[in-house]
Amino acid sequence: MPDSTPLDAAQQAALITRLQAETVALRAELDETNQGVLALYAELDNQAEQLRQASELKSRFLAYMSHEFRTPLGSILSITGLLADELDGPLSSEQHKQVAFVSAATRELSDMVDDLLDLAKIEAGRITISPGWFDMLDLFSALRGMFRPIVDSSSVDLIFEASEGVPRLYTDDKKLTQILRNFISNALKFTTRGEVRVSAQLLGDDRVRFAVSDTGIGIAPELLGALFEDFSQVDSPLQKRLRGTGLGLSLCKRFAELLGGEVGVLSEPSQGSTFYVVIPLALTRECADAQ
Length: 291
Fold this sequence. Notes:
CATH topology of the largest domain: Heat Shock Protein 90
Number of domains: 2
Order of helices and strands: HHEHEEHEEHHHEEH
Distance between the termini: 75 Å
């Protein structure tokens, strides 16, 4: 049986002393742990501030460099335009080809600069959404005119399907145009023959799905997941001949999210691809205010 003999005064004093010592040691350990936690929080705050400053510097650098590049690029485009119009004298056939090459390369670089500037604005939270009412016919007409010079000199047909049942939209038509323009541009780049087809389909009562389908090279399944990430590019022999920042699709995803929607892709190697964006028919005030 356990010993139930009462403790004498000396034993009680020793027990109290031991418990007090254990309490002091426990408090010291807790104080040390608290100091460690506080130091860890301070380090995390410091690292978060450093990351914020680095991100801000990167965004400022991208914005500054993008603006600085725009002026000389605009000058080059103006000069090549004057040369192509032969305002300073006739050009030979070979000279016209060279001027066209310079102009195309400059426009390509200008598009890259615009992508970098858009990325900087998004990361800095300076992208604004300006919704308004517009018709599908006007949107498709503008896109058709935009790509007419490219399609006229290509063996690929660009087809805009008639959009029946799609009412007027209330959203930022410029952001939507950027998304579709990027989809169409990529489709034309990676389609050597056949067609690129643009369509719009009503989903339910409040959403619309825009799709750009092509008969191009297609994309391997394992590459689909990373397509909409920053600086992601499809690894293919055709891609190696085509320059780009790898930001186009990433910006499409971000623009779609700003419009309250989403992007996606369906593709099979050698069978073509379909890139699509689904957005609300009317951008809600909550989405616009969240930007």
